[in-house]
Amino acid sequence: MTKTKYLTAPIPSKKVPKGIPYILFNEMAERFAFYGMTAVLVLYMTTQLKGPDGTLDLMGQTEAMRWFHLFKSAVYFLPILGALISDIWLGKYRTILCFCLIYCVGFLALTGDDTRLGLAVGLALMAVGGGVIKPCVSANVGDQFGKMNQHLLSKFYGWFYFAINLGAGISMALCPWLRVKYGPRIAFGIPSAFMLIATVAFWLGRAKFVHVPSGGIGFVKETLSGEGLRALGKLCIIYVFIAPFWALFDQSQSSWVLQATKMNLNFFGVKLLPEQPQSFNPFLVMIMIPLFYYCIYPAMNKVFRLTPLRKISFGMFVAALSFIVPAWIEKQIQAGYTPHIGWQLLAYVILTAGEVMVSVTCLEFSYTQAPKRMKSFIQAAFLLSISLGNAFTAGVNWFIENADGTSELSGPSYYWFFVIVMSVTAVIFIFVAAGYREKTYIQDEGTGEPAG
User: Fold this and answer.
1) Is there a domain that residue 226 lies in?
2) What is the DSSP letter of 250?
3) Which of 7, 19, 195, 227 is most buried per CB count within 10 Å?
C-alpha cells in the first residue's frame, strides 16, 4: 500500500485534536462571507439591482423573498451531492478544498456584475460550492475525535457553532453599512475576500487533520445495508419535522428585514440599517451557547433527563413563540404606529433560544447517530431539512403573490400562519421523539501514525 503523510484515524488522546483550530477559523471566515452576502441580498434586489443598460431593474418584495429562499433551499439541497462525492470518491478534505474554489468564483461573479445575470450566476456557483462542502465540514469536526476524547465532542460542536456565529455576527453588522456607504460591489467584495481567506486557512491545516478515507464501495454497501437504511430512515423522519423550524428561522433574513424598514431603528442612540438587526441573532447565539450548556441544561437535567430529542422538542415550541412577536409588530404597523426595533430584538432572543435547542443539538445528534462511513451523508440529510423549510417558505410566497405583486396573506396573518404550522409540528414531534431509539457511532482510533 502506498504510504501517505496524513493521519487516517484519530490519535488516542484525551486532548483537543490539533486540526480543530484550523476548522474553526475556516468556518468563521466562510460564515462571515456567506452571511455578509445574504444579509444585504434582499434589500440589494429591491433597491440596487441593475439592468444590462445600467438603469435600475428592481424586484418587488415578494419576488425578492422568493429568490432568497430558493437560493437558501438550493444551498441546503446540494449537500446530498457533496456527501456522495466525499464519501464515495474524494474524501472530506479534497471535497472541501475543491468546492471552496468554486465558492470563491461565485462570490467574484456576484461582486463583478450587478445585474440579474451576475446575481443568477453568482448565486448558482455559491449554492454549488457552499452546498457541497457543508456536510463535509461539520462531519470533519467529529472525525477528529476518537473514543478517548469523545467527551469533548459535544463541547466542540458548541464551539463550532460559536465560530459560525462570530463570523456571521460581525459580517451582518458590517456589510449593510458597506452596502449603503460604498455600494454593493464593496458589500459583496469584502465577503469575497473572506471566502478566499477561509480556503487558504483550510489548506494550511492539511497536515493537522485526520483524513478519514472515502468509503468507496464500502460506503454504498453500508448505506444500503439494513443498519444503514434503518439509521437513515429514523433520522429522516426527525428531519422532516425539523424543516418547519427552518421555514421560520431563515425569515429573519427576509421578512423580518423587510419589516424592519417600517420600524423605528434608533437603538441606544445609533440609527441602525434595516439589515443590521439580523446581527442580533449570532451575537445572542454566542451568549446563549455557554448559558445553555453550563447553566440551563444542567438545571433542567436535575428535574428530568434531558435527551437530545427533548431539547429539540422544546426548541420547536420556542420557535413558534418567537413568530408571535413580529405578528404583533405588523398589527401595530397596520394601526399606523412605528414600533421600536427593540421588539424585534425580543423576537430574536426567543428565536435564538429555539435555535440553540434545535440546530446545535441536531448537528451533534446527526453525527453520533450516523454509521461510520455515512457521516457526511447523514449531515447532508440533516441539511436537507433546511432546504425543505426554505422551499416551503418560497412556495408559500409564490402561492400568495397576486398578479400586481401584492400578497394575499399580508400583515399579522402571514406570521400567524407560520406560528400555527410550527405549533402543530411541535405537538406531533413529541410522539415521534418518544418512539426514537438512539444508537451512537464514533470513529475508531488509530495508532497515531500515517496510514501505510
Assistant:
1) yes
2) G
3) 195
Residue 293: domain span:
20-434
Question: Domain total for the chain?
Answer: 1
Residue 241 domain-assigned? yes
Q: Is the pLDDT of residue 450 over 70?
A: no
CATH number at residue 215: 1.20.1250.20
d(C-alpha 25, C-alpha 81), whole Å: 25
Q: Is residue 446 part of a domain?
A: no
**Do 384 and 79 meet the contact criterion of CB atoms below 8 Å apart?**
yes
DSSP conformation class of 370? S
d(CA 328, CA 343): 9
Burial of 15 (0-12, 13-18, 19+ CB in 10 A): exposed
Mind listing the pLDDT tens digit for each residue in 93-143? Answer: 899 999 999 999 999 999 999 999 999 999 999 999 999 998 888 778 878
Is residue 329 within a helix (H) or strand (E), and if so which, with residue range? Answer: helix 324-334
CA 390 to CA 71: how far, in whole Å?
A: 9
Burial profile 280-311: b = 16 or more Cβ within 10 angstroms, e = fewer: bbbbbbbebbeebeeeebeeeeeeeebebbbb
Consecutive H or E run containing 287: helix 280-291
Put residue 318 in one of left, alpha, beta given phi > 0 → left and psi -120 to 50 → alpha.
Answer: alpha
- 340 bridge partner residues: 264
Q: Could you tell me the three cell numbers for 326? A: 413580529
CA distance 38 to 275: 10
Check pLDDT > 90 for residue 155: no
Residue 337 lies in a domain: yes
Alpha carbons 367 and 139: distance in angstroms, whole number: 7
> Residue 271 is inside which H or E element, if any?
strand 270-271
pLDDT digit string, tens, across residues 390-417: 999 999 988 887 777 667 777 899 999 9
Grid cell 426554505 is found at: 390
d(CA 308, CA 275): 33
